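Margin note from the TA: students keep mixing up input and output lines. Inputs are the sequences; the output is the structure of the whole complex. Example:
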Amino acid sequence: MFKTWLPFEWIVSIRFLREGRLQTLFIIAGVALGVAVIVFMSALMTGLQMNFIRRVLSAQGHIQLLPPKEVTRPLRLGVYAPPGEVEAAIVQVPLQRLKSIDQWQAVAQQIRAMPQVIVVSPLAGGSALVMRGVASRAITVAGIDPALYYRIVTLPDKIVNGKAELTGSDILIGTELATDLGVSVGDKLRLTTASGADTTLTIVGIFDLGNKAANERSTFVALRTAQSLLALPGGVTSLDVTVRDVYTAETVAQRITAATGVQADSWIKTNAELFTAIAAQSTSNNAIRFFVGLSVAFGIASVLAVVVVQKSREIGILRAMGISQGQVMRVFLLQGGLMALAGSVAGSALGAGVLALWQRSARSADGTPLFALVLEPSLFIEALVLATVTGLIAALAPARRAARLDPVVAIRG
Amino acid sequence: MVDVAAHPVVVQLKGVRKAYNVGTAFETEVLHGIDLTVRHGEFCAVVGPSGSGKSTLLNIVGLLDRPTSGTVEVCGEETTALGDRALTRLRGHSIGFVFQFHHLITAFTALENVMMPMLGAEEFANDAMRVRAEALIASVGLAAWKDNGAGNLSGGQQQRVAIARALAMGPALLLADEPTGNLDTKSADEVFALLRRFNTEHGTTVLFVTHNAALAERCDKTIEVVDGLVTA
């Protein structure tokens, strides 16, 4: 018996779908497969991209502020040469000496006040030579404020031996450098800079950044230690900044430059190739989504076109008994929408299931998942809405055809 | 429901012509200027050889088809200038159809088929609708089969359900296009008796297309269509 809360068009649509059970099931399965592919691919791509970005950003800030480069100002024309004669000046590119960001504390405070910014960490960095006995290695010394810097680069997580705490006479070195120099935690290292300054520091921790070159060259000391070693009293060579949304880093960097006048490079700019690769991946993902959606739409449209032919006599009878063209059209539109909705619900569940299975099976050698998959509810809602709208659009042509059927011809068959 | 007393003439056709493929080399005129008046409560047999234009005439009277020229008045309403929406509404409220092949909708039960025109007009099902449909199903002697799927009834039963469905909106005019043509004699008699009963009890005007001379003789009036013209 008819449900009193269901309108006419819903009752007829549902009954027609139930009557052609097998046909309905096939198209729902088709939609479900399409939606499952979209859900699975989207989650996989997003997870992969987030993983790339996470790995890149685990070793650097989202934005880096640097002091302005030294530029040569050529002599003004006409100052030294007599009027009418051209001065031929050879402009030599200047050396980039190590220098501090001007008024960096005021700049840092100004940046910290920005709502998009999470952390601003000062860093005094330069080159040095590390010596132990007859062995020596060229290294980069990064003077950091651990409380701030560890919020950007989770160095304590990468310590394989010792600890990440830094006092004025401590140093953290990479695993490769430790091996090369034959040192361990508690040993002392002598650091010398090109200007002749030197200091002796105690190794308190050995880290593994997951990169051989970085493990060979990178070292971390306390900010003040680096400042005195590199002859930058109170100065810093860069400010590392993290922002709430990593994709807005370039916009924030431009805002910082505009507000402070200090050169700010975002990770998007410094990793342009990675970012281009991610954008290309997103574009291909969208193209696949579009074509899967298109094939789903054609599937629904073709099945409904067949249903209209099969049901043409019933449509004629309905029209004869006073059912309007609009009502007939809505009956078929609803069928498209309902099949797509049912298919997208099943497809979302299937996609989530396959993702869970994939996450369980795709693991690194140590048994941990290759990367974390992103299963956002918005993805499912998006798939649901998009599939239903696609179903409605696909049903449009068959529904119009059904509504315009001449009842006399339809009844005659 | 149409106030039939207010419209003593239920169908009025004046100079109705119907041609197909108009303006092409294949133009064929099927009806050649028909004048016809059917009064309230009449039970008319429409007879004539196959291809004479009976079904076309019925489709025009039933507002399923439009004449090429001439005027068609149904229940006092001139229909020539009406749009599709108005025609559909008039058809739904004033005219009931019974076809040679019952044309029940197999996705629904017998009772649901009878409720269908009322549901289409009112959008939502209600108790009054169900009560009326049950009364109609009972009146065609199928109360025990009301919940059967339309496809699970015999030919005679299906035609009786189709009659109940045609009467669901209480139409002033019932158009029956060879409703007994596909039935055995016993079932054909039952269907005719039903139509006659509704005509007598409710004053429903009936146009009954038939090839059965015996049944035609039992009607009040005979409209004979020969070569696209009404001859009697």
